[in-house]
């Protein structure tokens, strides 16, 4: 089942029009945005292929994704705590326990709130994050921080990944994390995964 989420993400990436990455904005753009940086980080280097699921979720035509994508692609400054594909795979057990067969079965509004819970307003470098006890997220909630460990509303923890911090874009910074943080626990699903 862990491979199911990754397979869905890769499938979504392959079926998306190529223009979604190159032309996901309105009008001319002259910045290297957080979206551009995430796509290039995922394409080559030590983290190639590590963010397929996150990119697939952000670019899906579901819920309020177009607005979230626009927020990460405009000139405003944001900080993204980017879960790796392994982080999404680890979420599979929680999703199954709640009665969903995959992330794709969750209500799009729930996925939107989870995505927004990974973005903070402003350019927060690792030193800024480590210097605070809590970080306000675009979802309206907070992540608690202690010694490079983020704690979500459900007391689940995510570690900032050394070597994958302070990845700069023109409109913000990306930090990779090893767990998907959750603002709330989704309502139970139908529970029939055959």
Characterise the protein shown here.
Residues 1-22 form the signal peptide. The structure is a single chain. With 194 residues, the protein is α+β, with helices and mostly antiparallel strands. The protein has a single domain (2-23, 31-177), classed as FAS1 domain (Roll). The protein contains 9 helices and 8 strands. The chain has helices at residues 2-15, 19-22, 34-43, 52-59, 65-73, 85-90, 92-97, 108-116, 126-130; strands at residues 78-83, 119-121, 134-136, 142-146, 149-151, 157-159, 167-169, 172-177. The strands form 2 sheets. It has a 4-stranded mixed beta sheet. It has a 4-stranded antiparallel beta sheet with strand order 3-4-5-6, with no helix packed on it. Strand 7 (167-169) and strand 8 (172-177) form a beta hairpin. Helix 1 crosses helix 4 (52-59). The longest helix is centred in the N-terminal third of the chain and has 14 residues, at 2-15. It starts with a helix and ends in a 17-residue tail after the last strand. 33% of the residues are buried.
Q: How would you classify the helix and strand content by structural class?
A: alpha+beta
Strand order of the largest sheet: 2-1-8-7
**Which geometry do the CA atoms define?**
globular
- State the separation between the terminal residues, measured CA to CA: 11 Å
Query: Mind telling me the CATH class?
Result: Mainly Beta
Q: Indicate the CATH topology.
A: FAS1 domain
Overall pLDDT metric: 86
Number of E strands? 8
Annotation field: number of helices: 9
Level-2 CATH architecture? Roll
- What fraction strand? 15-25%
- Major sheet description: 4 strands, mixed
Integer tally of domains: 1
In which range does the helix fraction lie?
25-40%
Topology as a string of helices (H) and strands (E): HHHHHEHHHEHEEEEEE
**pLDDT < 50 runs, ≥5 residues:** 1-28
Cα gyration radius (Å)? 16 Å
The CATH homologous superfamily corresponds to: FAS1 domain
């Amino acid at each position: 089942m862990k491979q199911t989420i990754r397979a869905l993400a890769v499938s979504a990436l392959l079926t998306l029009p190529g223009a979604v990455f190159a032309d996901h904005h309105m009008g001319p753009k002259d910045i290297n945005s957080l979206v551009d940086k995430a796509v290039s980080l995922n394409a080559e280097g030590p983290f190639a292929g590590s963010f397929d699921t996150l990119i697939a979720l952000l670019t899906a035509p579901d819920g309020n994704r177009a607005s979230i994508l626009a927020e990460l692609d405009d000139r405003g400054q944001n900080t993204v705590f980017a879960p790796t594909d392994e982080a999404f795979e680890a979420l599979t057990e929680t999703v199954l326990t709640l009665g969903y067969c995959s992330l794709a079965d969750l209500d799009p509004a729930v996925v939107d709130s989870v995505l927004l819970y990974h973005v903070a307003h402003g350019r927060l470098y690792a030193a800024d994050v480590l210097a605070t006890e809590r970080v306000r997220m675009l979802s309206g909630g907070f992540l608690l921080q202690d010694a490079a460990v983020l704690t979500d509303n459900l007391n689940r923890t995510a570690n900032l990944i050394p070597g994958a911090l302070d990845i700069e874009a023109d409109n913000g910074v990306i930090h990779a994390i090893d767990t998907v943080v959750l603002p709330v626990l989704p309502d139970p699903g139908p529970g029939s995964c055959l």
